[in-house]
Every structure is written in C-alpha cells, then in structure tokens.
Write a structure and sequence with these properties.
Elements: H1 6-10, H2 17-27, E1 29-37, H3 44-56, E2 65-69, E3 72-78, H4 82-100, E4 103-108, H5 115-132, E5 140-142, H6 148-152, H7 157-168, H8 173-188, H9 193-200, H10 204-218, H11 225-240
Parallel strand pairs: 4-5
Antiparallel strand pairs: 1-3, 1-4, 2-3
Length: 241
C-alpha cells in the first residue's frame, strides 16, 4: 500500500497528534522504509530480536516512531539531519549482521515539515526502497539521491524490456554485470580512463579493449556522450528488473 498508515504508527507514541505536528513543524521529519532479508528458518523470536535492534536505536523521548506493516519496518525520524539518519541506519545494519548474520534494505524519504506531508515522505521512501531492493551491491537509497530512477520507475514493463533487449541483447549475464560496474565507475570519474582503471584494477589498455568490445556487441560506445546516456538508461532499467 502507498497510503501512510497514520493510525497504527501514531498509536506507538506518548504524544498526541497535535504535539507531533508541532514537533514536525519545528524540526521536520522523514520516513524510512526497511525490510529485513530473513532466511526461511528464522522464527518469530528471532524476528522480534531484530526488530528490537531497530527500536533501541531510536530516540527515547517518545517522538521518533516505529511500526511493522505488511512485512516492512516503517520509521518516522524527526529532524532534518541526513547524516544522523545514515549513522542510524549503519548502526542497525552493523548490529544485525554481526549478531544475526542478517541483511536489510532501506529507502529514505525527504524531510517534511508537517505530518500531513509525511505521507509523501513515506511514498518517496517506498520509491527508493523499490529500487535498492533490486540492487545486489547497495542496501540504502535516499530519495534525494535518485536521478534517472525517478523517471524510469514509471516506464511500463513492456517498454522497459524492449529497451533492454535493444541495447543488451548480445551481452551475456556476466558481461552485463561487468559493464554495469564499468559504467558506474565511468560516471563516478567522469570518463577518466586512468581513474576508472585504477578503481577496477584494470590496465588502461584492458579497459579500452573492454569498451571497444562493448561497442562491437551493442553498437553503443560509452565514450560517446549520447551512447553513454542510452547505456546508462538500459543498465538502470536492468537494475529495476
């Protein structure tokens, strides 16, 4: 559901709705949507222990809110400090991995100044979560850091698959994974062959060879700006799939 579960969430706080709304206007607040990746043999007791890790990381002043909703853990954190949120999430991830060998995914919405707008932060957090849930390398995505994903999230499955097929039909799965990494570093280092090679532990000539091979197999050259955009869209859609 994309409707923010007000009643259930607010039931967990010692403050009333009016107090929370004033607190939100003063400090702002954002929603985090998380899902824990349990193995099938994890029992209810273990799931409660993991939930307590989340709960124990929150402020003890009765303002920050947490609930379980349809398999998700939903958190409303008051404040506008994204660094605090990052630290909050990292501390949870570290503890549940260390203690229970469990991973979790997190989507984070934008800061809002009223409880009426919090539902938008919730929808943004869901949007971010849907993307990071498909990512084998990242566990956290802030809505504020989403780019192409904001647009591509609304592309229908037929169009998405047709575009992927057009660009990547001649690539093996292992090649798609390799070029996904190259594309990520290419964007990060603004096309610097030297820096990309160092980041991926390639010789520069090896990287050039791989880029030439990609061009031969797809017809798109990452070193060409227009082609880079097409490849970026295709590989982002693959992540969505």
């Amino acid at each position: 559901s994309t409707l923010f579960p007000y009643t259930t969430l607010f039931r967990s706080t010692i403050l009333n709705y009016g107090d929370l709304n004033e607190y939100g206007k003063k400090y702002g607040g954002m929603v985090i949507v998380s899902k824990v990746l349990y193995y099938e043999d994890y029992n209810v007791e273990m799931k409660e222990k993991v939930f307590h890790v989340y709960r124990d990381r929150m402020n003890q002043n009765g303002t920050d809110l947490i609930m379980k909703h349809h398999g998700f853990i939903i958190i409303l954190l008051f404040g506008d400090d994204y660094k605090r949120v990052r630290y909050f999430i990292d501390s949870i991830r570290e503890e549940i991995v260390t203690k229970y060998n469990i991973k979790a995914k997190f989507g984070v919405g934008l800061v809002k100044k009223s409880l009426e707008d919090i539902k938008n932060s919730y929808n943004e957090a869901i949007n971010a979560f849907q993307w990071v849930a498909q990512d084998n390398h990242e566990d956290i995505l802030f809505y504020k850091d989403m780019g192409l994903e904001l647009v591509l999230n609304h592309v229908d499955p037929y169009t998405r698959n047709k575009f992927i097929e057009k660009v990547c039909k001649n690539l093996k799965k292992s090649e798609i994974e390799e070029y996904r990494k190259i594309l990520r570093e290419y964007e990060k280092y603004n096309g610097s062959i030297k820096k990309i090679s160092e980041a991926l532990f390639f010789h520069k000539n090896t990287l050039q060879y791989k880029l030439d091979k990609l061009y031969k197999k797809t017809g798109f050259d990452m070193r060409n700006y227009k082609d880079f955009v097409i490849l970026k869209i295709a590989f982002t859609l693959i992540k969505k799939n």
